[in-house]
Amino acid sequence: MDNGLYKVRFETPRGNGTGVVVLKDGHLWDGDSSMFYTGTYTLHDGHFVAKLVTNVHTIAPHKPSIFGRDIVHITLKGTFSRDYGEVTGTAREVPDLDFKAELTNLSP
Q1: Phi, psi angles (nearest 5°) of residue 71
Q2: Cβ atoms of residues 27 and 34 within 8 Å
Q3: Is the Cα dihedral 62, 64, 66, 68 positive or negative?
Q4: Are 94 and 69 in contact (CB under 8 A)?
């Protein structure tokens, strides 16, 4: 997996969304139309682990958080190739709500 800009598609049983994420040297910055996410990640032998926190940048009543709350602490695990990744995880605040995401490199 390279540093770069990635398209992200994510979902929980409460809904789904899309956004972009920047991965650079173990740090990530992500966002969509109403939320932003910041955190860190590690990558070893194609295995990806990340920890991030969400927050709101724009109140959007028509687009509620897919976690049912604005601020959550997410742990993700998954696999990555050079330009594509699949991850799953949970949020500490809603541990019974499964999270999935796909990332595709936009800056090869």
Answers
A1: -110, 115
A2: no
A3: negative
A4: yes
Amino acid in the structure at residue 58 = T
Query: Would you put residue 4 in left (φ > 0), alpha (ψ -120 to 50) or beta?
Result: left
User: pTM for the whole thing?
Assistant: 0.86
Task: Please list the rounded mean pLDDT of every run of 10 residues in the chain (108 residues).
Answer: 90 90 94 90 93 87 77 94 92 94 90
Q: Please give the Cα distance from 67 to 101 (Å, whole number).
A: 14
**What single letter denotes the amino acid at residue 28?**
L
- Is the Cβ–Cβ distance between 78 and 69 less than 8 Å? no
With CA atoms as reference, report the closest residue to 12 among 91, 79, 103, 75: 91
Q: Which residue has the tokens 């920890």?
A: 51
SS3 for 31-82 is: ECCCEEEEEEEEEECCEEEEEEEEEECCCCCCCCCCCCCCCCEEEEEEEECC
